[in-house]
């Protein structure tokens, strides 16, 4: 399948045809999507430029996204020491479980795992990207179903960003190694970019020294990914973009034998037309798999082997922008996403090691939406006012749900078929952007949205010692309502400031609800209400720059009659801040320091287990040697702060300790 995906990318590339009797018009291949509509700033966003993506101390995308205060995963661990299924992306303290409430797009393609809903961060290499746009708050437009906390748009690096050949090699603490390379030759009037990355490390002990046992081992990791992206013109206004991604990720979590494995093969093809009628047409397929072994913390034997979780995601969209004159930019279209997946797992007796049950779950779900949005710039106020609004109508289905249990001999002991469900869901948003002057822009927006529970939430239970969390096939849709107001200021050249106040209500929110000692279940609660303030700052003066972000999120659970009514959602900090100071003394040389703060948060819905607040400091340095090479130094968690990532009844996991890297970078 991997070879087929790569061949398909090249096969679909058209060869340019040149006229015989006249010089062809100039063809410009961009590799981008359609231009952003003029009303985009009305919803506020944070831009992460390429220079930041290539200078992060960890080399990990999730670390870069942490520059945006309010971004979080279910746990504070990164993609070297976290269970992959816990790496959902969320904004605005709308957390509480491991699924993504934020829509993550790479070149317009949704990246969430079809079964779990997590993001394969280890496979998305920052140096392969041109930039990132993070928009907090409900999304709409193409693939808008699921964007209840916001949208993270990743754009692949363009030809201008990529030298013909580049390579990176680094060696770090605990025998960690990292190798990557990219080759980007021109191909006719287009180009192809082929890249690969492999990194591994012996890892660190995630448990405190006082809690280690004879079964504890460092959190080892070993992963690789390859990516090929090709862009070719069809005419002077039409181009085709194709991409294939293959990745493999192995991790060991705390105990010897507690191994997880995830893999994926993704392919997409996209047509962009920039003529009078603008078109963005996209189709993609994703094949993913995951396995995980759970080890008993008392007998140190295998208790669960989640041996196989194959899933498939298929989707696409067609977006059209008709020519309506200078005052309007309208987008109308249709998109669809279909996900299906199986779960095969074997349960073991923690004492004897014998198989006690063999379980299999299966399900499908889909959303197909029609969307219409329009940005209106009144001619009389062309330089000052933009009004934007849109609606979506989604047909959703949850079908073929099944959960069966067999004994050790293979005899069927339980077989549950869940009823099919379907319906329509309507959502919309509206915003306004008013530029009062060259220095002041005011904005306001309101929105609704929804998210289907993932196949994982519906059908797969899981255990993180000593707590077991049950699935719930009856989960309903999450429904968002939100409003926000904000201002963007440019008081001086090189200085931009932003402020946003928001109120979001996520009705029917899926949460991990405590049922008893060491037992939870995924349930819909009445609502999670989050309100707060987000601040951003960017200052550049000469060779110095400063980037800052702060989020105050006052989130509470509304669950009348429940013990957790009025409490803070699990895994949701009230304060988060990030600041980066950078200095570029000469061309291609840089030195930067990043400070991050996350306040106290709670492990569970009842606020019984606390994760203390933490401040970490990272650093990055690059020194050129010759015309094409540079020495790179990186330092994570310089002061070796103990960052608690899990606390269940005093059983603690820790995040990345001090980690130092030295390497070389080549571009030619």
Describe this protein's structure:
- With 668 residues, the protein is mainly β.
- The protein has one domain (2-667): TonB-dependent receptor, beta-barrel domain (Maltoporin, Chain A).
- 4% of the residues lie in helices and 56% in strands.
- The protein is built from 4 helices and 38 strands.
- The strands form 5 sheets. The chain has a 25-stranded antiparallel beta sheet that branches. A 5-stranded mixed beta sheet has the order 1-4-5-2-3.
- A hairpin with a 6-residue loop joins strand 16 (328-348) and strand 17 (355-376).
- The protein is globular.
- The two termini are 33 Å apart.
CATH architecture: Beta Barrel
Q: How large a portion of the residues is in β-strands, by DSSP E?
A: over 45%
What is the gyration radius calculated from CA atoms?
Answer: 25 Å
- Whole-Å distance between the termini? 33 Å
Mean pLDDT: 92
Number of helices: 4
The biggest sheet amounts to: 25 strands, antiparallel
CATH superfamily descriptor: TonB-dependent receptor, beta-barrel domain
Approximate helicity band? under 10%
User: What is the count of distinct domains?
Assistant: 1
Low confidence ranges: 1-21
**What is the name of the CATH class?**
Mainly Beta
Number of strands: 38
> Structural class of the helix and strand makeup?
mainly beta
Principal-axes geometry comes out as: globular
Query: Would you give the CATH topology?
Result: Maltoporin, Chain A
């Amino acid at each position: 399948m991997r070879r087929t995906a790569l061949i398909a990318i090249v096969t679909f590339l058209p060869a340019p045809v040149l006229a015989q009797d006249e010089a062809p018009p100039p063809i410009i291949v961009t590799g981008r999507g359609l231009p952003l509509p003029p009303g985009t700033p009305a919803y506020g966003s944070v831009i992460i430029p390429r220079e930041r993506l290539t200078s992060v101390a960890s080399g990990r995308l999730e670390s870069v996204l942490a520059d945006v205060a309010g971004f979080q995963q279910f746990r504070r661990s990164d993609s070297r020491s976290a269970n992959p299924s816990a790496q959902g992306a969320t904004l605005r303290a709308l957390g509480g479980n491991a699924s993504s409430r934020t829509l993550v797009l790479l070149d317009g393609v949704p990246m969430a795992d079809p079964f779990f809903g997590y993001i394969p961060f280890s496979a998305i290499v920052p140096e392969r990207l041109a930039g990132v746009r993070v928009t907090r708050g409900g999304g709409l437009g193409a693939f808008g179903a699921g964007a209840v906390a916001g949208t993270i748009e990743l754009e692949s690096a363009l030809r201008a960003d990529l030298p013909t050949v580049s390579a990176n090699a680094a060696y770090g603490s605990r025998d960690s190694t990292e190798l990557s390379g990219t080759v980007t030759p021109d191909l006719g009037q287009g180009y192809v970019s082929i890249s690969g990355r492999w990194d591994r490390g012996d890892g660190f002990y995630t448990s405190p020294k006082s809690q280690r046992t004879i079964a504890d081992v460092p959190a080892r990791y070993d992963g690789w990914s390859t990516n090929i992206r090709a862009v070719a013109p069809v005419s002077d206004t039409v181009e085709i973009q194709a991409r294939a991604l293959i990745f493999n990720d192995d991790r060991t979590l705390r105990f010897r034998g507690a191994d997880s494995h995830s893999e994926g093969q993704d392919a997409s093809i996209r047509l962009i037309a920039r003529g009078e009628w603008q078109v963005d047409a996209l189709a993609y397929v994703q094949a993913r798999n995951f396995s995980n072994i759970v080890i008993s913390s008392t007998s140190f034997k295998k208790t669960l082997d989640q041996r196989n979780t194959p899933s498939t995601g298929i989707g696409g969209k067609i977006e059209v922008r008709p020519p309506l004159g200078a005052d309007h930019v309208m987008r109308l279209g249709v998109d669809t996403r279909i996900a299906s997946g199986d779960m095969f797992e074997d349960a073991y007796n923690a004492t004897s090691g014998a198989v006690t049950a063999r379980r299999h779950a299966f399900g499908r779900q889909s959303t197909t939406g029609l969307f219409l949005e329009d940005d209106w710039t009144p001619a009389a106020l062309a330089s000052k006012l933009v009004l934007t609004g849109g609606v979506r109508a989604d047909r959703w289905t949850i079908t073929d749900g099944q959960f069966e249990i067999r004994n050790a001999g293979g005899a069927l002991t339980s077989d549950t078929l869940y009823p099919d469900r379907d319906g329509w869901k309507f959502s919309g948003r509206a915003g306004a952007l008013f530029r009062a002057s060259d220095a002041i822009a005011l904005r306001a927006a309101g929105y609704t949205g929804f998210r289907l529970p993932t196949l994982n939430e519906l059908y797969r239970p899981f255990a993180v010692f000593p707590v077991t969390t049950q699935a719930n096939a009856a989960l309903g849709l999450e429904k968002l309502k939100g409003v926000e107001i904000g201002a963007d200021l440019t008081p001086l050249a090189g200085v931009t400031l932003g402020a946003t106040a928001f109120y979001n209500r996520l009705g029917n929110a899926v949460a991990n609800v405590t049922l008893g000692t060491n037992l939870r279940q995924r349930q819909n609660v009445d609502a999670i209400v989050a309100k707060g303030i987000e601040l951003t700052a960017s200052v550049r003066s000469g060779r110095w720059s400063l980037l800052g972000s702060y989020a105050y999120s006052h989130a509470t659970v509304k669950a009348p009659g429940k013990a957790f009514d009025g409490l803070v959602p699990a895994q949701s900090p009230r304060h988060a801040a990030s600041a980066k100071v950078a200095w570029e003394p000469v061309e291609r040389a840089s030195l930067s320091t990043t400070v991050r703060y996350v306040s106290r948060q709670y492990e569970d819905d009842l606020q019984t287990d606390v994760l203390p607040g933490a401040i970490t400091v990272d650093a990055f340095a690059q020194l050129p040697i010759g015309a094409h090479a540079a020495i790179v130094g990186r330092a994570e968690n310089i002061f070796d702060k103990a960052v608690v990532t899990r606390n269940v009844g005093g059983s603690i996991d820790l995040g990345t300790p001090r980690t130092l890297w030295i390497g070389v970078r080549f571009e030619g």
